[in-house]
Design brief:
The protein is α/β, with parallel strands linked by helices. Helices cover 56% and strands 11% of the residues. The longest helix is centred in the N-terminal third of the chain and has 47 residues. The chain starts with a helix and ends in a 6-residue tail after the last helix. InterPro entries: vWFA_dom_sf. This is VWFA domain-containing protein.
């Protein structure tokens, strides 16, 4: 009975902690949704009151696209979307609008166009997933609504220990043939697959993978060597210490940054917002913009 009680108490504590973090993150999402609702109500009032100018300004801001001649920075946010990463994926969805609004506010103060950057969100899983789920990719954009819609269709699933980071690196190499990638932000909780992992995990369905678009994916070190040759920095942030060694190695070899991202905490959403915002600003407007960001949005966590 004592053992059962101890096990139950431990499980109950973890369940309560998980639900608290989830509630905190959802509260942030509710605030963002309310802001969007209020904006929609304002637009409705423009229409009801025949305020044509107000409606035009609203629609212009909502549908504003990228300048054709812009020389912008391009950041790929590459995230683990396996079963253990539910908090990361929820926070990635919840923080899009906050992150964009902060980045644009800092750029405005620096006198820099808000169209100077683009992002692409990518999620990777493992070979237990099918071709359409092992890697999912958003369009390039600087509009938060597009990334939100993309994340709405991403669910945590699968996982087989070490993850198929090599598929994400393969994607970076593929798109960098036509686009100049400024940086990659890698977030995950497991190291990349070893050579033996890949052979074992693909083995049962080797014919399936050999006929897929990922047939040419190589071991992560080989994919990484191509990225190094293109001088694309990878900022690798690990959510669990089991990924620490490999993520630090990936960052060091590509001349990026590495560190622990405590996404599974009540401040996880704030940490993710600060991480992506500062890295985007660093590449699009320099260190002074990062400094200004930290002055305008001081951390509420330690």
């Amino acid at each position: 009975m004592r053992n059962n009680g101890t096990i139950y108490d431990g499980l109950n504590e973890k369940r309560n902690k998980y639900n608290q973090i989830k509630n905190d993150n959802e509260s942030g999402h509710v605030k963002q949704s309310k802001a969007l609702h209020d904006s929609s109500v304002e637009f409705q009032s423009f229409l009801q009151n025949n305020n044509i100018q107000g409606a035009k300004v609203f629609l212009h801001e909502l549908n504003k696209g990228l300048s054709i001649d812009i020389g912008n920075s391009k950041t790929v946010v590459l995230m683990d979307a396996t079963g253990s990463m539910s908090h990361l994926l929820q926070n990635a969805k919840n923080t899009v609008k906050v992150m964009f609004s902060r980045v644009c506010a800092v750029l405005s103060k620096k006198g820099v166009s808000s169209e100077c950057f683009q992002l692409q969100y990518c999620v990777y899983r493992n070979y237990s997933s099918n071709e359409d789920k092992i890697l999912q990719v958003s369009p390039w954009t600087n509009k938060p609504d597009i990334l939100e819609r993309f994340m709405e269709n991403v669910r945590p699933e699968g996982g087989q220990g070490n993850e198929a980071i090599e598929v994400g690196l393969w994607h970076i190499n593929k798109i960098s043939q036509n686009d100049k990638i400024s940086q990659v932000i890698l977030i995950g909780d497991c190291p990349p697959n070893t050579i033996d992992n890949i052979a074992e995990k693909r083995g049962a369905r080797s014919s399936y993978w050999n006929s897929s678009k990922f047939s040419s994916v190589e071991y992560y070190e080989r994919e990484l060597a191509k990225i190094i040759s293109k001088q694309i920095p990878i900022n690798a942030f690990y959510v669990d210490n089991c990924a620490k060694v490999k993520f630090e190695e990936i960052a060091r070899l590509t001349k990026g940054q590495s560190g622990f991202l405590d996404i599974n905490s009540s401040s996880g959403a704030d940490r993710l917002t600060d991480l992506v915002s500062t890295e985007v600003l660093r590449k699009s407007a320099g260190e002074d913009a990062v400094k200004l960001y930290r002055e305008m949005y001081p951390r509420s966590y330690t």
